[in-house]
Design a protein that fits this description.
Blueprint lengths: L12 H12 L4 E6 L4 E10 L8 H10 L7 E6 L8 E11 L21 E5 L2 H15 L7 E11 L6 H8 L6 E6 L1 H4 L4 E7 L2 E6 L2 E5 L1 E6 L4 H13 L1 H18 L3 E5 L4 E5 L3 E6 L1 E5 L8 H8 L7 E2 L1 H11 L10 E6 L4 E5 L3 E5 L2 E10 L5 H18 L9
Antiparallel strand pairs: 1-2, 1-7, 2-4, 3-4, 3-17, 5-6, 6-16, 6-20, 7-8, 8-19, 9-10, 9-18, 10-15, 11-14, 12-15, 13-14, 17-18, 19-20
The structure holds ligand ISJ.
Length: 405
């Protein structure tokens, strides 16, 4: 972030001072979520949320805030993809809330985080092995039981010759105004030096403000093109694709089914539409609702835990799809395809699906990308879709690679 530049909008002197201060202490930033909604950056870890395997996340969050020991009234954190794994939640020492006007977009102010000459990139599984996984998923879907969608992912392992700067990656990802960038200091839990999760997600899992909630599930994707005509056609074809609409509908139905019991009103006023990032087109449906009860309704974190994993990252039906993912994917997803966000004492908060991300450990990065497999999917197209989904992170890293990744 270039703090020497004039800042547009209504930025106060205090906000400027805070930005300068955090710039000077950028190594202490442990969590950030920055997008078109108000953004949050946090510094230091005041207290971690106890893990408590017997109680729900909602109960643990309530108990945390009931036990008043001061500090900011917010918990930030991440849910792993596998709900049996440990969540990472903590109360920060200091919080900076930023309005939308402070969002930095357009020009990458940072140096390219990596030089491709000093890189090793390995697909794990590689593209051919992933295509074979897709074949197996299709066989399971075609087997006659009610399995209809399995989201399969693959990874790129990147080994750089020097440690990468996670903040520089986030700043470059933020050049796309359509995404919400995130950074989570995973060393809070792992203790491993330089262990971070960074990414740029287009998908809102759930937000809550007072009684109002929203979710914007995505499913059904097409790569964008630099050629405007090809790009427009890709979007039109996606909007018309029966296979992608079917894949999308499963996610929307699951979100409605999960949220209906706690809502007095729930609707998708605009129906299915196109959502874009700088590299992808997606089918998206914005869902809006009003909770039955503000005080007794679930908090934003509780809602995220109810929804996760949606069929956008798991499949349908949920348990059968998760079993298939465990059987077919040779790797642990970690926090990829989990959720990142915050929740406060009032229950308000924002949670995003942790997509288009990289787990960083010093000079090693692991990128994940997945695609929904349904009847009508083909291995080649799913390989191409996952390649396209890697592009946002690769570009942020300074890698312009369209080859056989
Ligand atoms: C699984 C990913 O993305 C999800 C899967 C999509 C799809 O299958 O079309 C679209 C958006 C996301 O919900 C990913 O980016 O890795």
């Amino acid at each position: 972030m270039d703090i020497g530049e004039p800042i547009a909008g209504t930025t106060s002197q205090r906000a400027l001072d805070e930005r300068r201060e955090h710039h000077e202490h950028r190594e202490h930033q442990v969590f950030s979520l920055r997008g078109s909604d108000a953004s949050i950056q946090t510094f230091g870890v005041r207290r971690r949320l106890a893990l408590g395997y017997a109680s729900t996340l909602e109960d643990r969050v309530r108990a945390f805030f009931a036990d008043e020991t001061g500090g900011p009234n917010v918990l930030v954190g991440a849910l792993p993809f596998d709900t049996n794994r440990d969540t990472l939640f903590f109360q920060p020492e200091r919080v900076i809330w930023e309005g939308v006007e402070n969002r930095m977009t357009g020009v990458a102010r940072s140096n390219v985080p990596l030089r491709s000459s000093s890189l090793q990139i390995v697909g794990e599984p590689d593209a051919a092995a992933y295509a074979a996984m897709v074949e197996q998923a299709l066989a399971r879907i075609g087997a006659g039981d009610d399995l209809r969608k399995i989201v399969l992912s693959r990874r790129l392992r990147i080994h750089a010759s020097a440690p990468v700067d996670p903040m520089a990656i986030v700043e470059r990802l933020a050049c796309d105004p359509k995404v919400t960038t995130f950074l989570v200091d995973l060393s809070v839990a792992s203790g491993a030096h330089g262990h971070r999760l960074v990414g740029a997600t287009p998908e809102l899992l759930v937000s809550r403000k007072g009684l109002r909630i929203a979710s914007h599930p995505l499913a059904g994707s097409a790569a964008r093109s630099a050629d405007p005509e090809v790009d427009r056609r890709a979007a039109e074809d996606l909007l018309r694709s029966e296979k992608d609409r079917r894949e999308h509908a499963l996610v929307v139905e699951a979100v409605f089914d999960t949220l209906s019991p706690v809502c007095a009103e729930l609707s998708a006023p605009e129906g299915i539409g196109l959502q874009s990032t700088s590299t992808m087109w997606h089918l998206g449906t914005r869902i809006e609702g009003v909770l039955k009860s503000e005080e007794h309704g679930p908090s934003a974190a509780g809602l995220a835990a109810m929804l996760h994993p949606t069929p956008a990252v798991g499949g349908h039906p949920r348990e059968a799809a998760l079993e298939a993912i465990r059987a077919l994917e040779p790797h642990d997803r970690g926090f990829y395809a989990g959720a990142v966000g915050w929740t406060d004492t009032k229950g308000d908060g924002h949670w995003y699906v942790a997509l288009r991300c990289a787990e960083i450990r010093g000079s090693r990065l692991t990128l994940h990308a997945g695609a929904g497999i349904v009847a009508g999917s083909t291995p080649d197209r799913e390989v191409a879709e996952t390649s396209a989904k890697f592009r946002a992170m690769l570009h942020a890293l300074g890698i312009h690679e369209d080859g056989a990744l």
